[in-house]
Amino acid sequence: MGGYYNGQPVGVPYLNGTKHNMIRSKGCFFPPFYKVGDYWTRWEGEPNNSVSLLMLKWDTSEIYNWKYECARDGWEPRRLLYRFADQLHDGRTIVPIENYVHNPLPVPDGEPYTAGGTGIKFEHDATSVKVTNELSGSEGWVTTEVTLPAGDYELRARVVSVNSIYGSPQGPIISAAVGDDTIGAAPYEGDNTIHACAFSLPRRRKVALRLHANAINGHPAASTRFDHIMCMSTAAWAELDALGLTWFDANTVSDPIYQEAS
Question: Going along 136-192, which residue ranges are E strands?
């Protein structure tokens, strides 16, 4: 069942990433969590061709941390940390969290990505993009461009899967570049994993965000499938991380995941 706070329904809790019924028992009672319905999202302009915005309906200036211990037969007690706000709030007065990638899912009919070099091809399914490098011993990528003011940023993208019969990708799996200069990069760390690279801009610049499919030297063919491509300021990422969210666009907000207290 759902939880209530001050007489208002507040959603479904998660325990270690899995939905958990909020029940009173001898074991424990779980306090309330945010739910997807507690957020407003919208496109700044055309759908899948503009910045996406997320605003929380709750007043995030009054966040409380509650710790509960839960024990069941055959289980060690687990101390868990939960976060919730005390009052509903008009989300329009809260500065929105901005994802600058215009086609973040990405979808086939959204803002197009561009192949970086020869031998590179890419194809969409409904919710991801597959990048293939058909040349041997060379880097291959596709790009989407964003224009950002001066500041600190982080590109994150989920690598859904990698297919290389000659081994794991070499070099970066995602990167950011200004002109010919790479200003941030991250290596491959595994399938179904969010990869992140940070970068800083001293002034307003156009930045190429690159998704790679790097072939092993001397061998042809490698491919990588990506989804959930997001570029935000480090401050915005800190807000999203604090809310237990990993992803949003104007149509979707990820289920919140709350971590165990340290």
Answer: 141-148, 151-163, 172-178, 181-187
Distance, in Å, from the CA atom of 24 to the CA atom of 26, rounded to the nearest integer, reads 7
From the centroid of its chain, how far is CA 21? 26
Q: Alpha-carbon distance 156 to 97, whole Å?
A: 15
The identity of residue 45, as a single letter, is: G
Measured distance CA(104)–CA(58) in Å, rounded: 25
- Spatial separation of the C-alpha atoms in residues 235 and 252, rounded to whole Å: 21
Within the chain, where are the H helices?
234-242
Interval 100-158: pLDDT, tens: 999 999 999 999 999 987 788 889 888 899 999 888 767 789 999 999 999 999 999 99
The DSSP symbol for 248 reads B
* Sign (positive or negative) of CA dihedral 51, 48, 57, 245: negative
CA distance 212 to 190: 14
Residue in the block written with tokens 């499938």: 225
Q: Is the pTM of this model over 0.85?
A: no
Torsion of CA 214, 217, 221, 227, to 10 degrees: -10
Biggest alpha carbon–alpha carbon distance for the chain? 65
Closest CA to 208 of 217, 216, 197: 197
* Structure token pair of residue 91: 């989300």
The predicted-structure confidence for 168-199, as pLDDT tens digits, reads as follows 788 899 999 999 999 999 999 999 999 999 99
The structure tokens 């490698």 sit at 222
Give the phi and the psi of residue 57 in degrees, each rounded to 5.
-75, -15
Q: Which of 53, 56, 110, 96 is nearest to 227 (CA)?
A: 110
